[in-house]
Amino acid sequence: MIIQLPQNYSLQLVSDILQNDTQIQFEEIKVEECRESFQTFIKNTKQQIYGFNTLLGFKMPNPIKDLQNYETQQLQELFQCIPSDPPQFVNEDLCKITLFILINNLVNCSGVSLNTLKQLQQHFNNKTHLQLPSINFNTQYYDASLNWAILSTLKNISEYDAIIITFTKSLSFATLLYNTYRSFKCIKMAFITTSISFEATNGVICAFTQLVNEVKQHQGQIEVAQELYNLLTLNDEESDLNLSLKTITHNILQDAYSTRCIPQVIGASLDSIKFIINTIQSQQIGQRAYQFLYQTNSNHIQDIIYNQLNNNETELLLLDYLAIAVSEIGAITERRIQRLMNPQLTKLQDYYDQYLRDDQSLFGFQQLANQASNLIQKNKKYCHPVSADSMPQTTHLEDINNNFEDSILKMQHIINNTIQILAIDMFLSSRIIQKLEAKEGKLIHTKLNNIVQQILPIQTTNQVTQWLEQFIQL
């Protein structure tokens, strides 16, 4: 697949970037023209320029002419840093997206040389893995550690190119984009796992009907309910499982909260994730290093605008929203798992010993329920808002940027934990359905039975997690 730069950001673009055969291209002539204009402007201008890092918000005291006008010490730290031993590499997917964003931004009239951009393009196309500096690397910006990894791979790079790359915020936006993509996949995973779990617990399907879920006019709730209803029904009739289990369950009006309110909870998460997607697409967060207004006929640059975010507050706030939204998907799933495993609460008390027995384990499948509970407790801690961690004693230091590493790590944990909880739910529910089918006959219609049959041979929840990641495509 060939992606022509520049591109506007979207989840579909993230999906394309992560394809194994993805290559990028850009128009070299435009890059060279922009570079020539940039050099002419820097040589001749006498005006002061906002740009890069303005420290306390003041204008740069002098035009851009050499490294002395910038944080020379920080740049020297970047170039002198020794890679960690053992090596610490950037997550492969996050590395690809970060490189793509950096190149996409720089192609957009940044003044970076064609040589530098072609080297970056080669790194992306060859899937170069970036090695981070030591964890003791002391920099005001976490982005800079990744920029160091990029700069350390480039040859014959000019001081201006080094400046532009160093102060371009690519990792922060890449983290937001990548985790929004993975979070949306979590929603898709929840549709499948929730449907199978619903069948295993013999849920009352009327809770997902259109009439019930359009009362509040919450768009996410309506969409989730409709998706679940479509998965659970065949030709607008109740699923085979709901019909066949009538003889062994109580005829109740509604299910417990963790079952009947799935559209409300996952729908709210979907609304939050869509808000973030719309913000990314409408505001084009992270676009371009800076922008020229250039008059071709007079060969004169009217202005130069540094259009990168000087800190990561926007990304941090959106990542905090994202963390809570994804954690809630896992939370309601964990509640349903615990209810399923409790003989006092399940609607299938008479079958409890038969469908929960695991001959391979002393504690049966209860250990998986305990694992899900532990994971959701961890997610609650990770949901602490990093964007709120501003400390007055940091004075002029931008602690928001210092804390960005926490957002990267917490989103990685929350999404991985949530997928693991969904996998536990699917693992247990598939085996419950198998046990019940042995006594009651065929209980589930073809749309979901095909998925159950793929899950049953899998022996561990970690393998189910990997299967889910591969199965769900956006």
UniProtKB/TrEMBL annotation:
Taxonomic superkingdom: Eukaryota
InterPro entries to which the protein is assigned, alphabetical: Aromatic_Lyase (IPR001106)
Protein name: Uncharacterized protein
Source organism of the structure: Paramecium sonneborni
